[in-house]
Automatic annotation (TrEMBL):
Positions bearing N6-(pyridoxal phosphate)lysine: 195
Organism placement in taxonomy: Bacteria, Pseudomonadati, Bacteroidota, Cytophagia, Cytophagales
Protein name (Swiss-Prot/TrEMBL): Cystathionine gamma-lyase
UniProt-listed Gene3D superfamilies: Aspartate Aminotransferase, domain 1 (3.90.1150.10), Type I PLP-dependent aspartate aminotransferase-like (Major domain) (3.40.640.10)
Organism: Reichenbachiella agariperforans
A GO term for molecular function: pyridoxal phosphate binding
Amino acid sequence: MKFGTKVIHAGIEPDPTTGAIMTPVYQTSTFAQPSPGKHKGYEYARTQNPTRDVLQNNLAALENAAHGLVFASGMSAIDAVLKLLKPGDEVLTSTHLYGGTYRLFTQTYQDFGIKFKFVDMQELNRISEHFNEHTKLVWIETPSNPMMNIIDIKGLAGVCKKFNALFCVDNTFATPYLQNPVTLGADIVMHSVTKYISGHSDVIMGALMTNHHDLYEKLAFNQNSTGAVPGPQDCFLALRGVKTLHIRMQRHCENGRRIAHFLKSHPKVSKVYWPGFEEHQNHMVAKRQMSDFGGMIAFVLKDDKIEPAIQVMEKLKLFTLAESLGGVESLVGHPASMTHASIPREERIKSGLKDSLIRLSVGIEDAEDLVTDLEQALGK
Ligand SMILES: *Cc1c(COP(=O)(O)O)cnc(C)c1O
């Protein structure tokens, strides 16, 4: 099946009891058992729920993976992966991370005796130096939030294999429409389903997909033990959203391309971060591993101070100032004070994330209107 067919059909059958085309919302906490221990695969909804199962199978198919698990949030999905580790283990990760991921690493798991090493992974030629016998997990985002840095997934997968480290890719920005990390050698793919996959800014959810059966069993065990599961109504909404993922992504990419070029030619803008530009540090890698460049863009003004950036954000009318991304509506954000506020300023600046950086999640509105909005907000 091709992608556009999978989003609608993979793992989805009409409901066996009624023939309902849409997967029913199994709003139940428990299931009747004819005799103790004899049941139809469902006992208690923390462990399994039919609405959730359909979504999990669908998302696994989209990432070309054998198994999928959905969680109450993207963060709880990451948390489940970290619970595979033991005190003394090391995680090798990128300097370019979602703020919440950085916070979970440094403010929660560091206290449990797990070490986190942050390195720039855009250049892979000297990456081996950072591995040692304690390196058990490698965690990356590509494109990264918010500066759209690109990491070579296939190249890094090879290094991880050599050092026997688990390799996990947060694929939230690219979505399975643009890139499939499992196919490129990753052990686990993680998603904040909250973003593009659900796509309508009405659900908080996370997901993990893997081809390794033993890993899947451990992750499912962790999930059932700790209970970070989404409710059936949210699973229904994610299933409804995912059916249009391919056509939404197509438009996000088209609009993203248009706006990236508009910003690049604007006299008040000094730099635009978008992997579709040939001069982007890893444009060739992006071209190889992604089918297009997405709708996430960041830019800085020539007047590189915080106030003019805030003025632009306040003047925007169609781009709403808000956390999050990947919905049908365009959003604008200020990473330094919003999504990445939990990263210390010094660390943030070192990673190149300037105070004046503005991040756009380009929606699927008419591109003409979006450009007009940016034009009026930037001024002449
Ligand atoms: C939003 C986000 C997360 C966290 O997901 P939640 O659903 O908000 O818990 C993780 N990684 C990236 C790249 C994100 O954008």
